[in-house]
Amino acid sequence: MDLSPEDLQALQRVQTFSIHQRRHKVRVEDGVDLQSWRDSGRLRDLFPRLLKGQDLVDLVDHFVAAQRRRRAIIFALGAHVIKCGLNPLLIDMMQRGWLQAIVLNGAGIIHDLEVALLGATSEDVAENLGAGKFGMVQETPRLINDAVRKYSNTHVGLGTAVGRAIATGDYPYKAHSLLAAAYMHQVPLTVHVAIGADTIHMHPSTDGALLGQATYTDFQRLTLLLRGLHDGGCYWNIGSAVLLPEVFLKALTLCRNLGHAVERFVTVNLDMLQHYRPEYNVVRRPTQDGGRGYTLIGHHEIMLPLLYSMIVDALDAPA
Questions:
Q1: Which domain holds residue 280?
Q2: Fewer C-beta neighbours within 10 Å, C or N terminus of the chain?
């Protein structure tokens, strides 16, 4: 349909208003202030106070506030975090007393133990899968299963059992082990296993009953650890898309069911992709009645050193 003269005339009656009357979401003072960064030398001053730049700074502030107020800071880690070579940062946080608990999945203890044993981990799955050799090494399952049999019981869970085995055993690279560091520094470390999901479950030495009891003990332990999140604690889910977000939601529910108030805390999901379960089971649902949830998308080997550096800047500075 062609425009008529009347249509063209009507289009001339557009109503406008002054830009000074409009609300603006972005202002110059919210952007990068290079002079502040040059004056302070603090990495946080290099980020704009906008969008995820603001979230990044907020996360550091929440972490610092939780540490100074002695609220729990709990890191739940997918195994990829260990494979990215980030253990030294996490071990340093434990040594400084900044982490009150660490939560791992079953793959986490596999890679951490191999790092402690060999200073290396992570096989080429595609290379070994066709011949039925994927996950079929001897030492890893034997050592983990031996630790479960020797040290775990209804009071001692999977994380403590394997951590003790590494800390007290012949592991040349134990200084790089999260599990050993947690055991030595008495930081609770829980491990949550889905039986059949990890390579060690294929080994004939695996005792499903013992493994199930050990990981169940850790679930009960995590449930009570979550009490420390109340009123300002921080729970970070880093690189677990399914298992640990599900475990967290159930443990939180059980903790509240037992009569413990766990409200007004901060949750974070840090991963390379946006996934449904961490977004809802970590970021949204647990904080819907008070608290704050954040999502940051980025590679662990970049984001964690960045956040660690900003936290060190803040906590090493005078309060």
A1: 52-316
A2: N
